[in-house]
Automatic annotation (TrEMBL):
<dbReference type="InterPro" id="IPR036390">
    <property type="entry name" value="WH_DNA-bd_sf"/>
</dbReference>
<dbReference type="InterPro" id="IPR011991">
    <property type="entry name" value="ArsR-like_HTH"/>
</dbReference>
<keyword id="KW-0238">DNA-binding</keyword>
<dbReference type="GO" id="GO:0003677">
    <property type="term" value="F:DNA binding"/>
</dbReference>
<protein>
    <submittedName>
        <fullName>Helix-turn-helix transcriptional regulator</fullName>
    </submittedName>
</protein>
<dbReference type="InterPro" id="IPR036388">
    <property type="entry name" value="WH-like_DNA-bd_sf"/>
</dbReference>
Length: 305
């Protein structure tokens, strides 16, 4: 693998994550924060400001690829306030030049729409929500990223990506030059990734300390829930020998893509599946061998065997 692996920390990514999740409600039922997080924020933001934010629910989801690219161009440890000020003060042409190397089909018209549309809403989101949680989030992100940076000298880049993400395997992508690992809190426990021309951003969930040691660990609960369904057990057996694509699963197992994706998501967040990436439209799934040993470890630790 010829790519360079970087580990980046910036609250700007977390600002974008939280805004995207609140506005789109994407994956919300599979996340640790859950639907209660949305309801809590709904109750704290004045109705007219909530309505302003939710305008973005109708905008293309692909807009976030541009926003994340802009966050990356601001460099590691970029400040939220600086990012928001730049969105307001810099010209459309300047923002276009930042994104163009990563998005060859990006147009000046799209740039104007995204800059003018999201800039005021991200500032409103920062004022109403993100500034109240930023310092707590940032400390978790810095701590986790520091741990991963220590491992960089001890682990192969591919192994570190799989370890941090709990199963993301980046296969041979000839044009890929840089992969950036980004810790995230709001997206726990899923991974997200953005493909660009020669760059890939991989967000992985941070480890959050257990507050009550008498309660079962969250990962143990995810594992036992994932394994409680016989359909998911059969899926694990099916992908045990070699990676399978979603199309192969639909063909061999006779189930719809939506149903399969639900089960695959449950197994992925439990750390029981690997996802093999060749490009954004080519994903395959295989069993994650470490998942079974982690299940035993967490179970024995919790019941004190």
């Amino acid at each position: 693998m010829n790519y360079e692996l970087k580990i980046d920390v910036s609250p700007v990514y977390e600002l974008l994550d939280s805004f995207m999740l609140y506005v789109t409600r994407k994956w919300i039922s599979n996340l640790d924060i859950g639907p209660d997080w949305v309801r809590d924020i709904d109750g704290r933001i004045p109705p007219h400001k909530r309505a302003a934010l939710l305008q973005a629910a109708e905008w293309p989801f692909e807009d976030y690829d541009i926003l994340y690219a802009w966050a990356y161009t601001h460099g590691p440890a970029a400040k939220v306030q600086l990012f928001l000020d730049d969105m307001e003060s810099a010209t459309v042409e300047e923002w276009f030049e930042l994104a163009a190397p990563y998005l060859p089909d990006f147009t000046l018209e799209e740039c104007r729409r995204i800059k003018d549309g999201y800039g005021p809403l991200l500032r409103l989101w920062h004022e109403q929500y993100f500034r109240h949680v930023e310092s707590k989030m940032l400390s978790l992100l810095i701590e986790d990223a520091s741990e991963k940076k220590l491992l960089q000298s001890k682990m192969d880049p591919g192994a570190l990506i799989e370890y941090a993400s709990g199963g993301v395997v980046v296969e041979d992508i000839p044009e890929l030059e840089t992969i950036v690992l980004l810790p995230t809190v709001h997206h726990r426990p899923i991974n997200t990734y953005c493909f660009y021309k020669k760059l890939m951003l991989v967000q992985y969930p941070v480890d959050v300390p257990v507050e009550n040691e008498d309660e079962p660990p969250t990962l143990l609960l995810r594992m036992t829930k994932a394994l409680s369904d016989p359909v998911r057990l059969r899926l694990l057996r099916y992908v045990a020998d070699e990676p399978k694509s979603l199309w192969e699963m639909q063909s061999d197992l006779g189930q719809s893509g939506d149903i399969l994706m639900h089960h695959l998501m449950m197994l992925r967040v439990a750390g029981l599946l690997r996802i093999h990436l060749r490009d954004e439209d080519n994903e395959r799934f295989s069993i994650r061998p470490d998942g079974a040993s982690e299940l035993q470890m967490f179970l024995e630790s919790y019941i004190r065997l």
